[in-house]
Design a protein that fits this description.
single chain, about 270 residues, alpha/beta, Rossmann fold, 5-stranded antiparallel sheet, 11 strands
């Protein structure tokens, strides 16, 4: 995800060749839309590595350094002739780009991102932002304390102070996934109740995940039932969060487990 920031930094100073995957057939290392920007002295992005990338890189560098013409399109069967046994076919496009092309290019290459709201700026929240910042999510990081957010965040992470914190739930983008892990169980309960009320009214949140143990979730269920939420409504909540079978409580491990679960969910939507 930081490849766009790297592209912006380098293309602002010098030209490049943008190599893009425009079509694929069969088994291939990267999907359509993958790209790499080849500069005379550096490389940003990837079209899958191996001989496919090596040969495309060499072709682009020949154009940059020796002025050789670029093919508009190149069809590459991934077989013995290129030293890759994937078995599929990749079609590449080659495009000379200049600093003046940067605004349009940044807009064109921005990936499709799934909206995600993360409530809580604690240790696990920080670890999650470090992981999710490299994944295809537009992350809205929310806390009732405005001093908890670090500087130097990834490109698609925005920070928001909300007090009361649950007030932000009504403003989330439709289809958002929600992760709840505030510093307070009372705040967690308020955020979760707001999410369930939004689901009752609009049904437009893609996922609601609550950090915690089975004991915490049992306690929350009783309190939410007392607030009038049905068992069917409570079944929309995932708690504990993360992939089953991973038991470590280290923030970094929890972050990877939760990120993997979110990716599984986004693949099925």
């Amino acid at each position: 995800m930081n490849w766009l920031a790297e592209l912006e930094k380098h293309l602002a100073r010098k030209p490049a060749v943008l190599v893009s995957v425009v079509n694929t057939q069969g088994s291939v290392p990267r999907e359509r839309g993958s790209w790499m920007a080849v500069f005379s002295d550096t490389l940003v992005g990837s079209i899958g590595g191996g001989q496919l990338e090596y040969q495309a890189l060499a072709l682009a560098r020949q154009s940059l350094n020796a002025g050789l013409p670029l093919p508009a399109r190149q069809r590459v069967p991934l077989g013995p002739s290129v030293g890759q046994c994937c078995g599929g076919v990749v079609e590449l496009s080659y495009e000379a780009v200049q600093p003046a092309d940067l605004p349009a290019l940044m807009k064109r290459l921005q990936p499709d991102l799934s909206p995600l709201a993360l409530f809580g700026g604690g240790h696990v929240g920080h670890a999650l932002v470090n992981v999710l910042g490299e994944l295809p999510f537009a992350l809205r990081w929310i806390d009732s304390r405005d001093e908890v957010f670090p500087t130097g965040l990834p490109m698609f992470v925005s920070c928001e102070h909300s007090d009361p914190v649950q007030a932000a739930v009504s403003e989330l983008v439709a289809g958002s996934a929600v992760l709840i892990m505030s510093f307070s169980h009372a705040e967690d309960l308020d955020i979760l109740a707001a999410c369930l009320m939004r689901q009752r009214l609009h049904g437009d949140l893609g996922y609601i995940g609550l950090i915690g143990s089975a004991t915490k979730w049992a306690t929350f269920q009783h309190r939410l039932q007392a607030k009038g939420f049905s068992q069917t409504e409570l079944a929309q909540v995932t708690c504990p969060i993360g992939l089953s079978g991973i038991h470590s409580k280290r923030p970094e491990v929890i972050a990877v487990s939760v990120a993997a679960q979110l990716l599984q969910i986004s693949e099925t939507v």
